[in-house]
Amino acid sequence: MKARDRLRIAIQKSGRLAEPARELLARIGLSFRESRDRLFCYGESLPIDLLLVRDDDIPGLIAEGTCDLGIVGRNVLAEQAANRRAAGQPEAYRELRALGFGACRLSIAVPQEQADAPLAALAGRRIATSYPGLLEAFLRARGVDAEVVLLSGSVEIAPRLGKAEAICDLVSTGGTLAANQLRETEVVFESEAVLAGPPAGFDDARAELAALFLRRLDGVLRVRD
Ligand code: PRP
Ligand code: ZN
Ligand code: MG
């Protein structure tokens, strides 16, 4: 691969992690000049640039080498890693640091009036989710044979639409579940924002930049604790 002398970090363009990710990078001492389309930010204080993307694209961008590091939910990283494993593909990214913001959990939820039923009652039922890899692993481990229905969004309305009997989605404040008369019954996966990178290091100038970035990040994370 062509040697690169600038480090490229992918972050969410808009959404829950976008602001805190920018704040963290500022705290690390990075400053940027934004392009007009706000997709690329050129690093001014250090040769570290930003790419502003959809969070779901971040693991793939790291896997293909388009970006060197990324700030993304552990849920997204773990889901895509599970899918790669299932497809027999090699590991292509790993979690380098937990960042201490964006905490949420991937949980199973059911209509409020069924909230007292045990997990086993979902056998033979449909569970709608955008996280089939994590959900299937959880169901397998618990020995529950439910049908996983893949939905890319608006998972919380699936029960009312008759598409599923339960859902498995991210819960942060719980507001979305409450608004849809759903109750959380099982936590499938605990998540927060993480720094992700390739499984192996870099073999050009990016190695030193990544080490510098991690040193500064660790300093900022220590102060936070
Ligand atoms: C997640 C999830 C719920 C919501 C839950 O979506 O899908 O819709 O957050 O949060 P709450 O418990 O605070 O109500 P999010 O907006 O993160 O992203 P999405 O567009 O990928 O669904
Ligand atoms: Zn998303
Ligand atoms: Mg949502």
Automatic annotation (TrEMBL):
Coiled coil (residue ranges): none
Reported regulation of activity: Feedback inhibited by histidine.
Localization of this protein: Cytoplasm
Keyword DNA damage: no
Keywords: Amino-acid biosynthesis, ATP-binding, Cytoplasm, Glycosyltransferase, Histidine biosynthesis, Magnesium, Metal-binding, Nucleotide-binding, Transferase
Molecular function terms, GO-annotated: ATP phosphoribosyltransferase activity
EC number per UniProt: 2.4.2.17
Major localisation: cytoplasm
Involved pathway(s): Amino-acid biosynthesis; L-histidine biosynthesis; L-histidine from 5-phospho-alpha-D-ribose 1-diphosphate: step 1/9
Cofactor: Mg(2+)
Domain ATP phosphoribosyltransferase catalytic: 54-212
Reaction equations catalysed: 1-(5-phospho-beta-D-ribosyl)-ATP + diphosphate = 5-phospho-alpha-D-ribose 1-diphosphate + ATP
Family: Belongs to the ATP phosphoribosyltransferase family. Long subfamily.
Function: Catalyzes the condensation of ATP and 5-phosphoribose 1-diphosphate to form N'-(5'-phosphoribosyl)-ATP (PR-ATP). Has a crucial role in the pathway because the rate of histidine biosynthesis seems to be controlled primarily by regulation of HisG enzymatic activity.
UniProt protein name: ATP phosphoribosyltransferase
Highest classification ranks of the organism: Bacteria, Pseudomonadati, Pseudomonadota, Gammaproteobacteria, Lysobacterales
Gene from which the chain derives: hisG
Positions spanned in the full protein: 1 to 225 of 299
